[in-house]
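BUG: 3D viewer hangs when loading the predicted structure for this chain

Environment: internal workstation, default settings.
Expected: structure renders.
Actual: progress bar stalls at 90%.

Input used:
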Amino acid sequence: MYRVLLAEDEYIERKYLRKIFKKHSDQFEVVGEALNGNDAVKKAGLLHPDIIIMDINMAALNGLEAARAIKDTAPTTIIILNTAFAEFEFARLALEYKLDGYLLKPSSETDILASIEKSIRSTGSSDTCPNHQKSGSENIVTQVQDYVDSYYSRRLSLEEIAQSVHFSPAYISSLFRKETGMTITDYIRKVRLSHALTMLEQSPSAVGEIAKACGFSNISHFNRVFKKYTGNSPMELRKKMHADDSN
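Structure tokens produced before the viewer hung:
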């Protein structure tokens, strides 16, 4: 689990960020909040967060200076700047100070999670995660695949799958397609067809029973999908399989 510090002087923005991280409480824990740059530096030293969401425009010490001070003593801490101003100079300085990400307010949940995910991948170090767990896109995709592999026989929704990995449906849909080249729906269909092929060859069950066991809503839908992707109906393919076995 990643420990998160919110360095933000706007109450509404802090509340918005807390709500996002609460939705993904198995992945992130908000361990503290800072209302200005000096407070951020102090709390970073006391709380040792893995990730800091840092507002640029704060009193006492601005976000850039606070971020630089934190990086000097804790270089593996992921710091993502958060600002309402789309100014090139801020982005340039963020790179100069070797910070990890840059968000433009108001950022969507998907953008925030994607920025964190990208930063985690970029660090490439298990030291960033206190539990030394595998992290990153590959882990999320693997979790989605494992979930589908386990529950393909029942009716699956994107919302259910997203909830199982504690990310939003939009985020995992985009990530899964980017990493695998197929949609989650495509993967579900692939897994179901694979099991159906095995059952047609090895099980004496009727086609309707196989369709139900593999998660298809009804036999008509099963027949359509099966023929589209194999070129044969389930019965036609079963006959060919048995004919091959007898030769």
